Amino acid sequence: MEVRVTEAMSEELLRPFAEEEIHSALQQMHPLKLPGPHSFTKKQWNIIGYSVSACVLNILNTCSLNQLLNYTHIVLIPKCSNPENMTQFRPISLCNVIYKLVSKVLANRVKPLLDSLISTSQSAFIPNRLITDNVLVAYEINHFLSHKRHGQTGYASLKLDISKGGGESKTHWVAWQKLCRCKKEGGLGFRRLKDLNKALLAKQAWRVITNPNGILYQIFKYKYFPHSNFFTATDSHSPSYTWRSLMRTRELLAAGIRWSFGNGESISVVGVPCLPRPATFQVIFPPSSIPGTTKVAVLLDEGGWKESLVRKEFRPIDSECILSIPIPSERRQDELIWHSGRQGQFSVRSAYSLSCSLDP
């Protein structure tokens, strides 16, 4: 039987709780949520924070909970203007803040280990996992089995199809392109289905390339790009429909992604979008004395950029742009960001807008 809880994990789970964990849990709570009985807000921490910490630490370290702390206010919120019976109310529970702190501290203690403790087949309720991952994994398994009809080892699968009915399609007498225009331009604001489908597929592809430890990335890399990456993968023999669909989003993703500097070990000096300069986000004049595959890490030291080396190798228009990029003091891994979205986060809306602009 595989050992999932190592000695280091066990020591981390069993170590005594500290006051810093309680204060961190309180800061994670929403400041505008209604408090329950005997509760307080973040602003009162400097007044009663010591007493609250002592109470919570006593509960966590001794495993004893006063029954009074388990009291909860039940509030009924009307669903309509003039409710007449109980079914027209929505109940909510206002728990004690100390009760919430205990549960949140326990959740924070276990949260970093959930990915190691819970099987990869469980895709829901775990960060960076979605229930739709199981659908894609099942499709890849079925695709594999459909091509393994010969050999000494036999395989079998059970495939269940759930049919759904479709409605009738009405005939319209207006061009679809006009219907897809925004209302200000005389259209009805309908989404262009081709671009919307591409944006939705790009969301799945984005999850794959930004989560290299996920099960989907590992499966696709093993099958389709074991010695390259998602953007340089070539067409393999008999690829699955899922992979062919994701491959069609590469142009859209390439137009919307940009690298954020960390340690510079994943970013090449030439040919990689990493500069804050639309629309290519790349250097204009590649250096002649540095190979294009050289990583940006050679241009960095402990204090940041090697200014003299950057000015020597790049033209002024490129060197000034490079030196204007701040380098984090704590060197992290380079990461992909979605420059078309807010705060570098991918969204279907921004991907749809970008897809429409690429194919007006």
Automatic annotation (TrEMBL):
Pfam families assigned: RVT_1 (PF00078)
Biological classification of the source: Eukaryota, Viridiplantae, Streptophyta, Embryophyta, Tracheophyta
Organism expressing this protein natively: Sesamum latifolium
All copies of domain Reverse transcriptase, residue ranges: 79-165
Domain of life: Eukaryota
InterPro entries from the UniProt entry: Retrotransposon-Effector_Assoc, RT_dom
Protein name per its UniProtKB record: Ribonuclease H protein
